[in-house]
Amino acid sequence: MMKKLFTRALLPVFGLLLLSACNAESEFSSSPCYFAFQNGTFLDQTLASAMNPNSRGVFCQISESMSSGISYVNFMNNQGLSSQQKETVLEQRTSYVIGINNGIIVGFQALNETPNGGFTAYDLQCPNCTRKHNSYTNPRYRLTMDAAGTATCTNCNKHYNMNNRGIILDGEEGDVNLTQYVATTTGPLGYLLVHNR
Q1: How far apart are CA 160 and CA 152, in angstroms?
Q2: Residue 76: DSSP 8-state
Q3: Measured between alpha carbons, how far is 59 from 108 in angstroms, rounded to an integer?
Q4: Could you give the CA distance from residue 175 to residue 72 in angstroms, rounded to a whole number?
Q5: What are the pLDDT digits (tens) for 46-72?
Q6: For residues 119 and 185, is the Cβ–Cβ distance under 8 A?
Q7: pTM summary value
Q8: Cα–Cα distance between 167 and 161 in angstroms, integer?
Q9: Could you report the per-residue pLDDT of 98-146, keeping only the tens digit for each?
Q10: Which runs of E-coded beta strand occur in the chain?
Q11: Exposed, middle or buried: residue 77 (CB in 10 Å: 0-12, 13-18, 19+)?
């Protein structure tokens, strides 16, 4: 009953967020992804740092983990902050699909203005390694982030500019940019919604 009331109350808000996030379809992934988080409940400062339009270039990695039967959402930004939030019953009932292999990156781009103010979400897996080896769950294909907003693959060492649509900086012919998802936020202590097209 409580979940239904919560869902009905948030449905109009998410509807407005989705409408404000419309861009060209070719820019976004169709791979499964769904993450919705109310930071007004958790007040997580690591996540808030990446949801602030005045902190362009700050990106936050999001993943999910479990310890002793308890589910957590983990946050780590490219400025050295990290935190972990215990999921409430509402989060546990939500079927999160956090990117291709349990990892997404969110933040405001410094160089690319889009209709939603430059807020974006990338997958944490290197798109070129996952395609080349046809392996979407290999943890060796994860990206690391630096303070300048560059994501680097731990396997192939390719670099991507998260501040400008995730474009590859040192690619070869046939290489692709970072996998993007639709992302919207209502501010540092508001809602975050990331999903596929």
Answers
A1: 6
A2: E
A3: 7
A4: 34
A5: 999 999 999 999 999 999 999 999 999
A6: yes
A7: 0.84
A8: 5
A9: 999 999 999 999 987 666 789 999 999 999 999 998 887 788 899 999 9
A10: 34-38, 59-67, 70-77, 82-86, 104-108, 119-123, 143-145, 150-153, 159-161, 167-168, 180-185, 191-195
A11: buried
